[in-house]
Design brief:
333 residues; alpha+beta; Ribosomal Protein L30, Chain: A; three-stranded antiparallel beta sheet; 8 helices; 14 strands
Length: 333
């Protein structure tokens, strides 16, 4: 009978299979720990014996619990990438289900970008831990924090005094709010886009044939302002805004005025962080935060006395997407 020391006995027991039928994984699938050199199941992210992090590239992703991404109208938690310049993007792709090309674009952007939404805080923290093993620094920001369903308070006018204060006039009601310029901590610029597509189709042999389509779109420059401690913020939209606060610098066009107003606000608010990258990253944002899309039945369409078919109107709008982007930057301050 072989006699073992206590340490040898422990080593012997650790090497025994977990079930009478043998290991649940093939020997070739087991992952070696770089610290204690013991073999681990490929479903673990840290060592079963010493707790060290395992090589993310060796972990079998098909054994990590699958996570359902909630619909855009469901409450969820957003995994925001803060830094991924030196990350193992192949491992991150396997963990998140995102294409490597998308993650490469996120890394090149060098700014906060959401790469995934999950239903719960626990699942978000799990994803963050997994991504950290691939060298990706991320943060969990909930939909409740973003509050995209609650629009910023729209402004009609901004007056600037030489004494370092702003007078904000609300669009509805005309209420005036005086704010010290030093209290503005964030200015976010962007473009609100609305695309409306109207189609007419008729039914032929059991299917619909499109016979007419028309499109119209509107683009409006927008500026969001955030006061310290107030996540709702204020919003300036070109249409309906009174640029008389620019004084002698006021131009004939709204496009020129909004640029001048942005510059004056940036100069007047010394503590404000300026974010002007929305248009550059909108395509990346759409992967997790798509534009709002609504489809409405427009009823029968006629040409004279002849019924030509049935109409449908489809509207795409990025207002909520921009609001999420704007509020994300406020919560990252």
């Amino acid at each position: 009978m072989t006699t073992r020391t206590p340490d040898e006995e422990i080593d012997f027991l650790r090497e025994l299979p977990l079930t009478a039928g043998g290991s649940a994984f093939a020997a070739a699938d087991l992952v070696d720990c770089s610290r204690c050199e013991r073999k681990n199941p490929p479903s673990r992210s840290d060592c079963l014996y010493c707790g060290a992090k395992l090589d993310a590239r060796a972990v079998r992703v098909d054994n990590i619990p699958s996570i359902r991404e909630p619909e855009i109208w469901e409450r969820g938690h957003n995994v925001i990438v803060l830094s991924s310049a030196d990350a193992d993007l192949l491992s991150a792709s396997a963990l998140t289900g995102r294409e490597v090309q998308f993650l490469e674009s996120v890394a090149r952007a060098r700014q906060p970008i959401p790469i995934m939404r999950v239903p719960s805080s626990e699942e978000a923290e799990f994803v963050l831990r997994q991504l950290s093993t691939s060298g990706m620094k991320c943060l969990n920001v909930s939909d409740e924090q973003l509050g995209a369903e609650r629009s910023p308070r729209r402004l009609r006018r901004i007056g600037m005094s030489g004494e370092g204060s702003l007078r904000l006039t609300l669009f509805n009601g005309g209420e005036e709010i005086d704010i010290p310029a030093v209290d503005i901590v964030l200015i976010v610029t962007g473009l609100l886009r609305r695309l409306e597509t109207a189609t007419t189709a008729k039914r032929e042999k059991g299917s619909y044939k499109f016979i007419e389509e028309s499109r119209s779109s509107t683009d409006e420059v927008v500026i969001d302002l955030y006061r310290r401690g107030e996540p709702q913020g204020f919003r300036i939209v070109c249409s309906g805004f009174d640029f008389s606060g620019l004084g002698d610098e006021m131009s004939a066009t709204a496009a020129a005025n909004i640029i001048k107003l942005t510059g004056k606000l940036a100069a007047a608010c010394p503590n404000a962080r300026i974010v002007e990258s929305f248009r550059e990253v909108a395509g990346l944002l759409a992967t997790v935060w798509p534009e709002s899309l609504s489809k409405n039945f427009a009823g029968p369409r006629r040409a004279g006395l002849i019924k030509r078919g049935f109409g449908r109107v489809e509207i795409s709008d990025n207002t909520e997407q921009f609001t999420r982007f704007s509020r994300m930057h406020f919560h990252l301050l």
